[in-house]
């Protein structure tokens, strides 16, 4: 996440031992998070910085094993819990509990893990259960180790595809019962996009409390200015305006890109005048919170860029 990465980088660089034979866990995660092609572990690093756990991950004298959730795993967990990243980091004790539940004392390779039934975590007296299935290693019968044995100076990293929720952290959102569908259907300035959502079959999902989303919705005026009607807004166009987690404006400022339900990313740029999506659409009204997500109103629709369309445009130029 961009607003934290500079601080993370400074801390990590300052703490690099001059004669280290291997990078620390923090340095490995940082390298991955700042990769220009496929950045990963941005959420984990930002959370580690917020909680103070980063110093442990960068301690060359420590010997630990970290189960590192991917960014996609964090997005899914936030959606399941019905909270935003800001909600998570607002409670430091809760954040520390979550992160230390992913850390085990000692240097454990995959071959060491598979012979165990449980592992003691650094969070209180909690444990992780270990099971194997079809040559896969599962933690708590949910999270799969998708990459193993990443060696660091101070331990081992195993990449997992789900966030591990401590036993005390199984609560759900206590926000009111107003859904995304309730909000959009009752706003006159969003009547065109609501009609498009109905036509695309999205309205039922917007009414479900267990489907957490962030919606970027253009107003009627924005669609008219772009010469777009309901007929121009199909499933792909609608899906490109939705992200599968709850992201407030403060959260958005920490990202360079966001994965949409379509599968294509949208870019995020923070300017003096506000937040820009794909360099063109400005959030003109943000943080409209529902029980199952949040809505940000934008002044231009987000246009889906396809390889075929890009190739056609280049050939015409």
List keywords for this structure.
FAS1 domain; disordered C terminus; alpha+beta; seven-stranded mixed sheet; 317 residues
Please tell me about this protein's structure:
The protein is of the alpha+beta class. The chain has two domains: 2-160, FAS1 domain, CATH 2.30.180.10; 180-307, Roll (FAS1 domain). The protein has helices at 2-14, 25-33, 42-51, 54-57, 71-81, 85-90, 92-100, 110-113, 180-185, 191-200, 203-206, 220-225, 235-239, 249-252, 307-316, and strands at 64-69, 103-105, 118-120, 127-133, 136-139, 143-152, 155-160, 213-218, 242-243, 257-259, 265-271, 274-277, 281-290, 293-298. Strand 10 and strand 11 form a beta hairpin. Helix 1 (2-14) packs antiparallel against helix 2 (25-33) and helix 3 packs across helix 7 (92-100). The longest helix has 13 residues, at 2-14. It starts with a helix and ends with a helix. The model is unreliable at 12-20, 169-175 and 306-317 (pLDDT under 50).
Q: How many distinct helices?
A: 15
Mean pLDDT: 85
The biggest beta sheet is recorded as:
7 strands, mixed
End-to-end Cα distance, whole Å, is 36 Å
Backbone structural class: alpha+beta
Order of helices and strands: HHHHEHHHEHEEEEEHHHEHHEHEEEEEH
Number of strands: 14
Strand order of the largest sheet: 2-1-7-6-5-4-3
> CATH class of the largest domain, anyone?
Mainly Beta
The tally of structural domains comes to 2
Per CATH, the superfamily of the largest domain is FAS1 domain
Secondary structure: helix percent? 25-40%
Q: Uncertain spans, ≥5 residues at pLDDT below 50?
A: 12-20, 169-175, 306-317
Radius of gyration: 21 Å
CATH topology of the largest domain: FAS1 domain
Oligomer category? single chain
C-alpha geometry = elongated
